[in-house]
Every structure is written in C-alpha cells, then in structure tokens.
Amino acid sequence: MPTITGPFKIKHSAIQMLPSFCKLESENPFTNVDAFLEICSTIFLNNVSNNAFQLWLFPFSLKDKGKAWLDTKSHITTWGLMQKEFLKKFFSIGKLTALRLSETICSQNKNKQLHKSWERFKELLRSCPRHEVPQWQLV
Question: Whole-model pTM?
C-alpha cells in the first residue's frame, strides 16, 4: 500500500461517517463502495493523492469478515485494484447472475401500476450498478 507521509489529521467524526461493511447477507458491497467514495469526496488533504488516501481510509469501513479479508490482501497498491478485489470477493457470481436475470425479465405485473414496476426495475439496477447488461436489452 502507498504510504502517506506528513502531518495531517482526520477527525474522528469523519471516520464515524464511513459506511460499515461486515459481510452480512443483507449488505450490498456496491452500496458500501459508493457510500465510501461519497464520504471520501468531502475530505481533501494537501499533497496526498486520492488513491493513497482511499487505500489508507478504506480499512476503517470494514468490520468482522470484511476486515479479516483485507488483512490477507497486502499486494493491493491502488484503489482501483482494491475496489475490484473487494467486489469480486463479496459480490458473488451467483448473485450477479441472479440480478442480471431479474433485470432482463423484469416486467409489469397485471395488478401493479406502471410506476411501481418502474421503481422496482430502477431498484434492481441500483443494487448492481456494474451489471454489464447492454442498454438495448434493458430497454
């Protein structure tokens, strides 16, 4: 991991604002990464790259199994690689396939209003923003 040198302070309240990922079944790692990046975008340090800062801060957003996983990943040196490895580990291929299938067969039920079906479809898309289903197929 890149090292951050020089004096700087991160307020305890900023660390407390970070999302907490424990690897529970109900947790979505995409949501965790998005919330983490949103918090990071509000913090600026002079002479510190975003890459180094995000790598340094990310462990504070992990708990339990997430933290244990990170302890085995000393080879990660960029935020892009961290994000890729994290999502690969905690968002299984099976879960991704199920979401892709749900997105591609999503339709309006007879008894549901169009806006409710539309909201359900948008929620499916938000739950897996990197679904890689082509735009034409979603339409």
Answer: 0.63
